[in-house]
Backbone:
RNA sequence: GGGUCGUUAGCUCAGCUGGUUAGAGUGCCGCCUUGACAUGGCGGAGGUCGCUAGUUCGAGUCUAGCACGACCCACCA
């Protein structure tokens, strides 16, 4: 083995390529008899670059997949990318405009060619990056949400929903993004809090000398006003209802109406109604049959429905101009600065404009109800379960989903129109023509709907479309049979509604069951000071960069350690550094075993082990295995638990305790003991290596391949294909070896106590301290004889048993007593130490035990409530504690006196 | 307005169904390099668990209220 573990990109890639070419990642397919385990990777955007969120997401998935693979499952982890309509179109159009091409001037097909070319060139960068992360997905089944299969699936899905009247086309007010010039769904709207001006504007009442004052943050929309509304019970305005008023700057008069949706408390209580540009106004306008006056074009500039002076202005400019004109006319009563929130496009970042257009919608109520019931019934488990109520709230108040987008990149809506405007839904243009001819006779010319579908529409088919689903009798259903429903979906909570809910709905609709049994929603990664990572803050960390500096395993382990359900995690570089040290520790422990000629032998029988050191270690190994298995269970997914158990087991137990003791055996034991230590330690290490592999795959594989410890492995054998050392397969039980465990705990406790005291007393580590032992219990006597070497090697003490007189004490300063550990271990075992130090220590302890004693005495003997109400087991435990405290107190008092 | 979460050591965080002296990493202090590892070893200091009440024999843990912080949804005239 090399002296240092090489975690450079090239070294890790070599390991990865080995795995990949050995076929270890590949799922077996329909013929396999193994149990299957399926995860569909949430497809990253083709435009994406691996960010830290992907790293977390895929690390956790990889841990599960590797774990299940080692446990003998036939794993399918299917990777892929999403075509990401808006993001991709934006990116490519920006590139084009950088080279002087306006994509809007290009024919549709030509622009799409540019995008496809771009996709072929850069579209799988992120998949390459996932390899660097160690993601063990089945690359033979990689998918893209606009590949051939998806094209068929999407059209089938659309047609069925259309035929079942769940998809319909309607003219509605939708959220319109004036920069992207497309409709977007409610979910893609972000409310941004901004400073604005609330304008109180007088609308002169026709034929009266009075005015009605309305309040608005958007005075420029007054050109679209078609009424002023007040609350029916509002006495202030009761006399105006039924009259008309003049919309300033236009000369138009509009009715003053009453409607109970008007809030009397807001603004002035009088509301201007602009049906074409406000959601509430739209409803009021509809119910009062008001005209909808569209005053913005698709880029949100004022159109020719407004007075010439304002045409072509942006909303912002128009707002300024309108305010000053109103001021000139004396109709502006007041302007107040106010905070308000303005809907912005999540993607484009510009203020949205509600816009009246024809769009395609998907009715959600029934679909949502089914998805809701699935989670209520436990068919799908949401982890952490906190999300259950959020899930319920959202699904039970669901609005139709606007699925059409006025974009070029995406799945075209499979609807064709005749010249007279008849709709024909079909799977392809040919089929549409056929239908048209049947219906209307020959010679019909058709044009396809210009819109494309929301990216999330195709994404919602991901779990089954990736397995070859289409409709009736389409190909390859054996994969669906075998791998669907999938076992777990791992993703961020931010796309719970965008994606998870919609997959659930579609799966019920098309497959009749849930798409996944568990949904694990991981949290957000923040920077070291707790801020969200964002480009504008400049605090985005690049996971590739972190891997270059600390190794992939260190990053993975850090993420796993912090993957606590429902908690955001802060990425602190110190922690990654610490985990790199952990990887080094692992590497060096392997080197140690190698240098000591420890060899793994698959025929080595752990049942024949005699040394209690190894038995203890095996019990601890089994215990650790159980903890890891329990933590990785599908229903819990406690990655932080599993990884922290392994961290401490390797470092504290295996290295600092076990290997230190193995060293002593190897230097002091007899031949048989040495041999046993070599085989046992290697055997145990192999088990540990397998436990660690899902978390830190590269270093463990490298050790397995390079270390002489595993020289007996087959040439092509890889750790990734090794069988997990399951707790069940360890043929011993903790009970059989309880004595050995107690023995080791005793000696380690002793070592700890002696070390602590030595350090307090300032004894040099080199200095071997002779200790005189008296009043040994039989168990201690046995242990002391057995563990003399360890006591000397690890605690630096040389002890002598009963009957040896005090003259072994050779240092003058050693005249006090060691007490704590021995007392705790149930031994009255006084040992000599320095008097002044010992005395103050004893005094401190005495005080503690004295108060403990008094407290427990009161509780056990004078507390009636306790005596009456506490369970027997607790009472017994308290009584034991009392007796212990009493013993300690008395012993310490005596020692204190002696000193 | 509706909902969710958080507040534990200097810092970042664990702490499962209430039960010995509340833990880890990191930082800090002291000691230690001839053989796996200084990316290391050994020891140590440091917390009235946000505040107030309550339930209980017993509360970091359960209940209520409050304070501060974060987030989601809806609305915003």
Residues:
């Amino acid at each position: 083995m090399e002296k240092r573990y090489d975690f450079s990109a090239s070294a890790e890639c070599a390991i990865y390529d080995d795995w990949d070419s050995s076929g270890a990642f590949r799922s077996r397919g329909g013929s396999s008899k193994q149990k299957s385990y399926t995860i569909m990777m949430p497809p990253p955007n083709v435009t994406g670059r691996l960010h830290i969120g992907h790293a977390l997401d895929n690390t956790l998935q990889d841990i599960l997949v590797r774990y299940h693979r080692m446990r003998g499952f036939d794993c399918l982890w299917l990777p892929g990318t999403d075509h990401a309509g808006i993001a991709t179109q934006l990116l490519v159009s920006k590139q084009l405009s950088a080279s002087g091409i306006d994509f809007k001037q290009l024919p549709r097909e030509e622009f799409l060619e540019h995008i496809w070319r771009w996709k072929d060139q850069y579209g799988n960068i992120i998949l390459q990056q996932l390899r660097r992360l160690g993601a063990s997905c089945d690359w033979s089944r990689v998918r893209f949400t606009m590949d051939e299969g998806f094209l068929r699936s999407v059209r089938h899905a659309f047609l069925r929903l259309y035929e079942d009247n769940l998809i319909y086309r309607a003219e509605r007010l939708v959220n319109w993004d004036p920069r992207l010039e497309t409709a977007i769904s409610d979910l893609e709207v972000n409310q941004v809090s901004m400073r604005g001006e609330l304008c109180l504007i007088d609308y002169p009442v026709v034929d009266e000398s009075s005015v009605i004052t309305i309040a608005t943050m958007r005075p420029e929309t007054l050109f679209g006003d078609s009424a002023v509304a007040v609350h029916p019970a509002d006495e202030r305005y009761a006399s105006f209802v039924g009259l008309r008023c003049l919309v300033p700057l236009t000369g138009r008069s509009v009715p003053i109406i009453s409607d109970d949706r008007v809030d009397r408390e807001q603004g002035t209580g009088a509301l201007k109604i602009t049906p074409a540009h406000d959601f509430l106004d739209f409803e009021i306008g509809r119910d009062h049959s008001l005209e909808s006056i569209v005053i913005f074009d698709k880029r949100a500039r004022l159109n020719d429905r407004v007075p010439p002076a304002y045409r072509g202005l942006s909303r912002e400019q128009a707002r300024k101009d309108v305010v000053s004109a109103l001021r000139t006319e004396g109709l502006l009563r007041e302007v107040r600065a106010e905070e308000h929130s303005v809907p912005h496009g999540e993607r484009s970042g510009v203020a949205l404009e509600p816009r009246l257009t024809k769009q395609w919608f998907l009715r959600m109520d029934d679909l949502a109800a089914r998805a809701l019931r699935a989670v209520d019934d436990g068919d799908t488990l949401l982890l952490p379960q906190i999300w259950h109520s959020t899930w319920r709230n959202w699904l039970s108040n669901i609005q139709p989903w606007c699925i059409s987008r006025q974009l070029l990149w995406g799945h075209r809506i499979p609807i064709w129109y005749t010249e007279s405007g008849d709709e024909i839904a079909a799977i392809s243009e040919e089929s549409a023509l056929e239908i048209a001819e049947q219906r209307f006779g020959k010679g019909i010319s058709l044009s396809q709907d210009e819109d494309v579908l929301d990216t999330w529409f195709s994404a919602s088919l991901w779990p089954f479309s990736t397995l070859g689903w289409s409709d009736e009798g389409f190909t390859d259903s054996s994969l669906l049979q075998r791998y669907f429903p999938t076992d777990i979906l791992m993703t961020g909570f931010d796309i719970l509604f965008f994606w998870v809910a919609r997959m659930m709905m579609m799966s019920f609709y098309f497959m009749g069951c849930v798409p996944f049994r568990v949904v694990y929603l991981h949290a957000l990664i923040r920077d070291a000071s707790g801020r969200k990572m964002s480009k504008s803050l400049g605090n985005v960390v690049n996971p590739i960069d972190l891997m270059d500096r600390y190794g992939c395993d260190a990053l993975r382990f850090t993420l796993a350690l912090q993957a606590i359900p429902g908690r955001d995690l802060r990425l602190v570089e110190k922690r990654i550094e610490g985990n790199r040290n952990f990887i080094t520790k692992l590497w060096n422990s392997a080197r140690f075993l190698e240098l000591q000629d420890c060899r793994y032998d698959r025929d080595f029988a752990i049942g024949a082990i005699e040394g209690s050191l190894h038995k203890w270690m095996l019990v601890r190994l089994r215990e650790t295995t159980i903890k890891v298995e329990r933590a990785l269970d599908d229903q819990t997914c406690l990655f932080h638990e599993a990884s922290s158990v392994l961290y401490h087991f390797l470092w504290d137990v295996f290295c600092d305790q076990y290997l230190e003791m193995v060293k002593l055996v190897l230097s002091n034991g007899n031949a048989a003991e040495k041999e046993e230590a070599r085989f046992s330690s290697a055997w145990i290490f192999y088990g540990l290596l397998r436990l660690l592999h899902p978390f830190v795959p590269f270093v463990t594989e490298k050790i397995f391949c390079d270390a002489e410890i595993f020289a007996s492995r087959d040439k092509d054998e890889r750790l990734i294909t090794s069988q997990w050392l399951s707790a069940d397969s360890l043929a011993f039980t903790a009970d059989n070896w309880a004595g050995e465990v107690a023995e080791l705990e005793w000696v380690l406790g002793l070592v700890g106590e002696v070390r602590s005291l030595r350090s307090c007393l300032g004894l040099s580590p080199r200095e071997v301290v002779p200790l005189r032992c008296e009043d040994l219990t039989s168990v201690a006597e046995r242990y002391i004889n057995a563990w003399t070497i360890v006591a000397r090697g690890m605690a630096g003490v040389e002890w002598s048993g009963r009957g040896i007189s005090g003259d072994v004490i050779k240092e003058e300063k050693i005249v006090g007593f060691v007490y704590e550990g021995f007392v705790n271990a149930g031994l009255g075992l006084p040992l000599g130490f320095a008097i002044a130090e010992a005395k103050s220590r004893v005094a401190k302890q005495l005080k503690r035990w004295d108060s403990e004693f008094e407290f427990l005495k009161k509780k056990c003997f004078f507390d009636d409530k306790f005596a009456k109400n506490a369970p027997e087991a607790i009472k017994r435990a308290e009584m034991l504690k009392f007796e212990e405290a009493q013993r300690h107190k008395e012993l310490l008092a005596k020692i204190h006196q002696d000193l």
Observations:
- The radius of gyration of chain A is 37 Å.
- The first strand of chain A starts at residue 36 and ends at 40.
- DSSP finds 29 helices and 27 strands in chain A.
